[in-house]
Amino acid sequence: MNQPHAQTQLRHGRVTSPASRGSVAVELGLLGNWQVNEMEGGKNFPALTAGPFPAPYQTDSDSVAPPGDGHILSGGKVDARDCLNFTNEEMSLKLNRPFTWPMLSVNPGQTFDVTWEYTAPHVTRGYSWFITRDGWNPKQRISRAQLEPTSFFDDFYTQVPYYSHSAEMKAKVNHHVTLPGNKKGHHVIVLMWIVANTGNAFYQAFDVDFQ
């Protein structure tokens, strides 16, 4: 028999290593993998409005509206996936027990290796990485004010227009970035997989502890 979520389960992609907030929520039984595969929201982040993707890639599909503040880590999803935006206090209330988002131990300036699993690869413009500001407040949900104003790493295909180079612009299974060299303690990283031929990016989030 067909499962009721058979079509839904086959969508898009998620990070399988290291542990993201999405994978933590799956382990807790709050979400299914298919929900974490499908955390798509407007790709013009940190802009708030829909519209053309910035130059020199404005021939890509226009962005839909990016996630609002407080809903960034779920790609703007406000269903069950909103739990990914929860503070430790909100999660503790939801689970009815003390909870702290698990943190990945990292060093400033190290290489951060990510593995993706794609269930529906899209024509990929690239990947963009954001991180919380120094002095951010973990008792508040992640907002633009809580993040550095610009990405700390971008990995983009440069071919334009995308529709003449679709076969080359493949999603990357293994992704390696250099973390900022000046961070200490707990920070949240937001990773976006940016699609060229739709208005969306797929959002993944990690809690890290800089040693």
TrEMBL record:
<protein>
    <submittedName>
        <fullName>Chitin-binding protein</fullName>
    </submittedName>
</protein>
<dbReference type="InterPro" id="IPR004302">
    <property type="entry name" value="Cellulose/chitin-bd_N"/>
</dbReference>
<dbReference type="InterPro" id="IPR051024">
    <property type="entry name" value="GlcNAc_Chitin_IntDeg"/>
</dbReference>
<feature type="domain" description="Chitin-binding type-4">
    <location>
        <begin position="12"/>
        <end position="208"/>
    </location>
</feature>
<keyword id="KW-0732">Signal</keyword>
<dbReference type="Pfam" id="PF03067">
    <property type="entry name" value="LPMO_10"/>
</dbReference>
<feature type="compositionally biased region" description="Polar residues">
    <location>
        <begin position="1"/>
        <end position="10"/>
    </location>
</feature>
<feature type="region of interest" description="Disordered">
    <location>
        <begin position="1"/>
        <end position="21"/>
    </location>
</feature>
<dbReference type="InterPro" id="IPR014756">
    <property type="entry name" value="Ig_E-set"/>
</dbReference>
